């Protein structure tokens, strides 16, 4: 069967263009219109000209008499490229009695169409409405007789017009007008195959003709579209030679078409491989409505848009030309005048005409296609969601776009898809802690366009990291717990914290705080019980890892006094301390001071608060005394102070020398460490004095109070320093330590987490970069192998890669490896060594 899908329609009167089949590509918007018609200027075109450029037929009806009516025929031929005989080809008109054919009216219409370069939709061979079936046909009760009558009628009519009519409504209205059942009582006496037989008859009579089934009301009668689709699907499945489905589209007054749903109905038929057409469009108006023509134009535009949006919708035919001759005014159903057509009674174009022409012209210029692909400009991860931002697609003819963003996980998360009017689209239902890539496609009436490129992967949030180790301060049946926020919030803001007390080793009920404050009072605790606390941060994803536990506190009693110091003389020592920083929720009453002589505790002495010193007499000269202090309140005694370095009672003595201080380089500074003096002398150490050396020259000393971190600032990056230190007590300064190892200030910190994997005479050593490069980027690393703790020649690598193969090792020997980072200032301190590996 020839599928002359799109008949080109030449300008009026050029019959030579008739029925030439052209490919849709030949009708691309760039194709020139007829002389004078530029679709970018719709007013320069007749409907049939822009319709042809849009790849569609625009049709109307005529009765024989109308083809000779000057006004009617002029507008008809000028504007429409397809002609449907309104009544002249119906059975009652063409074979009013058995065997007696009357072709003159049909001939007139067909001849007129040919003369005016119009295609003809042959309407209709069998109209399955009993009302319109001739009485003589209705009188036939013998199925065999009726079958031959139907076959004869179809064959005779199709044969007669074989050269001039290439498209037939073979069966019209097989379904009940306002229902979903079958319409005819006459033809169904032939049995279920009568529709297939009618198509077979038409096909046999003209194998090149397009054969259509035409139906009323499927656009609005409830359930009728589904019934029609089922009927047509069965015909297609049975191999019936059907080419298209005509949707009459006689609208009711005041209906509002759902253009998307209507386009979907049309597409249901093209999805079966058929063409579809709007074959009998009229839109009656309420006669008293002043705005009627504007509304009517909108409805016309929607019908035309729906057809344009469906690739194989090939025709829109209006059921008449002018409001003067519409069948609806004579139907007796609607208030008259119904004014349902494109031209008014004076043949002037109505607003609906302008709209139809404008829509056809738009399709001629911008095509009948789905939108282009949008461009994703960014995807932002949120809690179980991704917000997808994009730039719009090119819309084409159908500007009413929606966008569908879809996100799929690359590692097992749930897929999400959300449709919205524009950017951004929040795609929900995703899985936290999974990675996603998202894309967007635009949809218009013609369908969904190409997908955008996939976005870069985005990670959805996880639970927060662990907060810093909390501190806890006792109160009355309570504790104030303070922590630092986690370094990572998991990708979405922290909303609160969970504090979990552990009492005497038993985990207690967790307390939740819906606040981002990093200090909270935990109540409901038991006085005199010992608690530790862990803290976990909460974000919308969930509760993160717990911190390490706080130091233990005893609830309800004061914390320990601090800076317990003693100054000894002959036979005596004066002890001083600082009051505790927290009283446990009730006022301090006293202190319990315990002397410890040569490591053995002596009986404790009570000192009433607020006094914070005590002279102990009667002590043994030459013995070493330390003291510990606990504070009391009404609830009880708190924990004892930290151990202090003992002082020697007797003659005045300065402290012994501390150990030589190693230094860790910082940015223009160094942090020192040293071993405490073995003896603080006859008094507690109150301070340390540090002397920096640069190139062996002593610089100005710095003094640090005891307990203060010895950070030597004001150093010059890239210079190499070493340090000596001495301790000071109430008697005076002790001797200097020896000078510690030199360090390049400003060199990077130590690499971390060094691992080694043995190979054959090699090992692959990997590490993490130092936490700080001290202000100058790491430029290389030095890897030192150790055998039995003895350093072997180091290997230097002038690049920041953190995994290196160390060659030249000895098979069977156990090695460890330490790594130093290098920057422009120098080489930093060694990392801790890797675990030992035995080289193969
Ligand atoms: C109508 C004509 O317009 C009227 O003049 C006639 O009286 C009845 O038929 N569905 C069809 C068309 O398929 O053939 C009908 O035409 C309208 C409804």
Structure description:
The protein has 840 residues and is of the alpha+beta class. The chain is 15% helix and 32% strand. The protein binds (3S,4R)-3-hydroxy-2-oxopiperidin-4-yl beta-D-xylopyranoside. The site of (3S,4R)-3-hydroxy-2-oxopiperidin-4-yl beta-D-xylopyranoside (XIL) has 7 residues, from loops.
Order of strands, widest sheet: 3-2-1-9-8-7-6-5-4
Distance between the termini: 79 Å
Rounded to an integer in angstroms, the radius of gyration calculated over CA atoms is: 49 Å
Tell me what portion of residues adopts beta-strand conformation.
25-35%
List all distinct small molecules, including ions and cofactors, that are bound in this structure: (3S,4R)-3-hydroxy-2-oxopiperidin-4-yl beta-D-xylopyranoside
Q: Estimate percent helicity.
A: 10-25%
SS class = alpha+beta
Indicate the overall shape.
elongated
Total of helices: 11
- Mean pLDDT value: 94
Tally of strands = 52
- Could you give a short account of the major beta sheet? 9 strands, parallel
Poorly predicted tracts of residues: 1-34
């Amino acid at each position: 069967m020839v599928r002359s899908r799109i008949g080109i329609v030449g300008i009026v009167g050029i019959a030579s263009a008739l029925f030439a089949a052209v490919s849709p590509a030949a009708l691309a918007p760039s194709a020139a219109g007829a002389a004078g018609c530029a679709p970018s200027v719709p007013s320069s075109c007749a409907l049939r000209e822009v319709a042809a450029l849009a790849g569609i037929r625009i049709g109307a009806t005529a009765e024989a008499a109308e083809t000779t009516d000057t006004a009617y025929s002029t507008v008809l031929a000028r504007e429409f490229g397809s002609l449907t005989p309104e009544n002249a080809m119906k059975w009652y008109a063409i074979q009013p009695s058995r065997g007696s054919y009357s072709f003159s009216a049909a001939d007139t219409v067909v001849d007129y169409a040919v003369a005016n370069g119009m295609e003809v939709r042959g309407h209709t061979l069998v109209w399955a409405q009993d009302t319109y079936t001739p009485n003589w046909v209705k009188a036939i009760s013998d199925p065999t007789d009726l079958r031959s009558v139907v076959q004869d009628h179809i064959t005779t009519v199709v044969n007669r017009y074989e050269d001039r009519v290439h498209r037939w409504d073979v069966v019209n209205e097989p379904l009940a007008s306002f229902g979903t059942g079958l319409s005819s009582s006459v033809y169904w006496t032939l049995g279920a195959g009568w529709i297939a037989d009618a198509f077979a008859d038409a096909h046999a009579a003209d194998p090149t003709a397009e054969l259509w089934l035409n139906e009323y009301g499927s656009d609005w009668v409830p359930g009728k579209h589904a019934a029609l689709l089922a009927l047509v699907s069965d015909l297609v499945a049975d191999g019936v030679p059907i080419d298209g489905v005509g949707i009459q589209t006689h609208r009711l007054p005041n209906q509002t078409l759902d253009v998307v749903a209507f386009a979907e109905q049309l597409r249901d038929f093209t999805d079966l491989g058929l063409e579809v057409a709007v074959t009998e469009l009229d839109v009656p108006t309420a006669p008293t409505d002043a705005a009627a023509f504007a509304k009517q134009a909108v409805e016309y535009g929607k019908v035309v848009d729906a057809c344009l949006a469906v690739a194989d919708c090939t025709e829109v035919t209006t059921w008449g030309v002018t409001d003067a001759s519409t069948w609806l005014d004579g139907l007796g159903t609607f208030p008259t005048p119904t004014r349902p057509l494109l031209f008014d009674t004076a043949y002037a174009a109505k607003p609906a005409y302008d709209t139809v022409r404008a829509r056809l012209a738009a399709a001629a210029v911008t095509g009948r296609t789905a939108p282009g692909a949008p461009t994703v400009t960014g995807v932002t991860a949120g809690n179980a969601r991704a917000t997808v931002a994009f730039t719009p697609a090119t819309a084409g003819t159908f500007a009413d776009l929606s966008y569908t963003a879809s996100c799929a996980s690359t590692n097992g998360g749930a897929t999400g898809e959300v449709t919205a009017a524009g950017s951004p689209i929040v795609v929900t239902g995703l899985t936290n802690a999974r990675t996603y890539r998202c894309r967007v496609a635009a949809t218009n009436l013609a369908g969904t366009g190409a997908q955008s490129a996939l976005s870069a992967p985005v990670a959805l949030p996880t639970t927060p990291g662990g907060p810093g180790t909390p501190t806890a301060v006792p109160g009355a049946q309570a504790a104030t717990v303070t922590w630092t926020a986690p370094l990572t919030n998991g990708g979405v803001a922290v909303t609160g914290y969970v504090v979990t007390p552990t009492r005497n080793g038993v985990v207690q009920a967790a307390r939740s705080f819906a606040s981002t404050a990093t200090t909270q009072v935990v109540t409901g605790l038991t006085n005199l019980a010992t608690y530790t606390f862990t803290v976990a941060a909460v974000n919308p994803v969930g509760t993160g890892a717990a911190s390490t536990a706080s130091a233990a506190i005893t609830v309800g009693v004061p914390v320990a006094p601090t800076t317990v110091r003693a100054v000894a003389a002959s036979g005596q020592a004066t002890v001083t301390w600082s009051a505790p920083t927290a009283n446990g929720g009730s006022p301090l009453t006293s202190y319990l001071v315990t002397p410890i002589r040569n490591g053995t505790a002596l009986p404790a002495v009570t000192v009433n608060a607020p006094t914070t010193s005590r002279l102990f007499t009667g002590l043994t000269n030459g013995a070493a005394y330390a003291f510990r202090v606990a504070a009391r309140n009404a609830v009880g005694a708190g924990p004892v102070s930290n151990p202090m370095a003992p002082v020697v009672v007797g003659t005045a003595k300065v402290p012994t020398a501390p150990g030589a201080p190693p230094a860790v380089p910082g940015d223009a500074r160094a942090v020192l460490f040293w071993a405490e003096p073995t003896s603080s002398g006859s008094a507690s150490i109150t301070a340390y004095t540090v002397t920096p050396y640069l190139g062996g020259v002593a610089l100005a000393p710095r003094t640090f109070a005891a307990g203060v971190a010895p950070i030597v600032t004001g150093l010059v990056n890239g210079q190499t320093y070493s340090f000596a230190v001495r301790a000071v007590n109430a008697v005076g300064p002790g001797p200097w330590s020896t000078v510690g190892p030199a360090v390049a200030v400003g060199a990077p910190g130590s690499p971390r987490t060094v691992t080694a994997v043995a190979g054959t005479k090699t090992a692959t050593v990997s590490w993490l970069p130092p936490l700080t490069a001290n202000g100058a980027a790491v430029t290389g690393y030095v890897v030192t192998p150790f055998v039995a703790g003895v350093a072997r020649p180091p290997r230097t690598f002038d690049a920041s890669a953190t995994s290196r193969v160390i060659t030249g090792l000895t098979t069977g020997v156990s090695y460890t490896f330490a790594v130093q980072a290098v920057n422009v200032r120098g080489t930093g301190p060694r990392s801790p060594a890797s675990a030992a590996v035995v080289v193969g």
